[in-house]
């Protein structure tokens, strides 16, 4: 599976990690569900997705905090490109 397949899947992939499932929900336009999936998750992957969600929301300060938690620089690419980058990284790490 790649980022495009994740984005267009009719449902979250079976066995998807919460961060990967959150990306799927965001791609479907459900920011609230995506946020709920990573809001209390531990780990760098969840923090990275959490940062992306707050960036999409327009809350740059909160996003910056979560980028620091994830050990990632604040993204400068368009949000759609960042979504692809995160999805590809999580899929490569075995997020399913």
Features:
single chain; 96 residues; mainly alpha; 0% strand
What does this structure look like?
With 96 residues, this protein is mainly α. The chain has one domain (17-92). Helices cover 66% and strands 0% of the residues. α4 (44-57) runs antiparallel to α5. 34% of the residues are buried.
Any chance you could write out the topology, listing elements then pairs?
Blueprint: H1 3-8, H2 18-27, H3 31-38, H4 44-57, H5 60-70, H6 79-92
Helix pairs in contact: 2-3, 2-4, 3-4, 4-5, 4-6
Short recap of the structure:
The protein is an all-alpha fold.
What is the total tally of β strands? 0
Helix tally?
6
Number of domains: 1
Helix/strand order: HHHHHH
**Which regions are unreliable across 5 or more consecutive residues at pLDDT < 50?**
none
- Please estimate the helix content: 55-70%
Average pLDDT level: 95
Basic shape: globular
Query: What is Rg?
Result: 12 Å
Largest sheet: none
What structural category do the secondary elements indicate? mainly alpha
* Strand composition percent: under 5%
Q: What is the end-to-end distance?
A: 9 Å
């Amino acid at each position: 599976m790649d980022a495009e397949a994740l984005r267009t899947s009719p449902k979250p992939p079976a066995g998807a990690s919460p961060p990967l499932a959150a990306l799927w929900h965001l791609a479907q336009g459900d920011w609230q569900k995506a946020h709920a999936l990573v809001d209390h998750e531990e780990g760098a992957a969840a923090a990275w997705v959490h940062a992306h969600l707050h960036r999409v929301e327009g809350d740059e300060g909160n996003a910056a905090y979560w980028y620091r938690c994830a050990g990632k620089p604040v993204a400068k690419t368009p949000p759609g490109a960042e979504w692809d980058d995160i999805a590809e990284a999580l899929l490569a790490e075995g997020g399913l």
